[in-house]
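During the reporting period the student researcher (J.K.) took over the structure-prediction task from the postdoctoral fellow and processed the backlog of single-chain submissions. One of the processed entries is reproduced below for the supervisory committee.
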Amino acid sequence: MTVRDSDSAVRRARFGALPERIAYEDMVEEKAASPAAPPEYGGGEPEARSHLGCLAWDLAL
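J.K. obtained the following structure tokens:
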């Protein structure tokens, strides 16, 4: 048994094995997008959206 093998055996005895890998498909959930907000809720004029606040400008940085 080499040093590397003994280190591996000690580590496995102390911490156990790694958990099984989870497939990407099992971690992702697809949902239909919600409908767009009506104009009275801020989805209106493009000019209004162009003036969204920027934290750097607000702090005068």
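The committee noted the following: The chain has a mean pLDDT of 75.
J.K. will present the remaining backlog at the next meeting.
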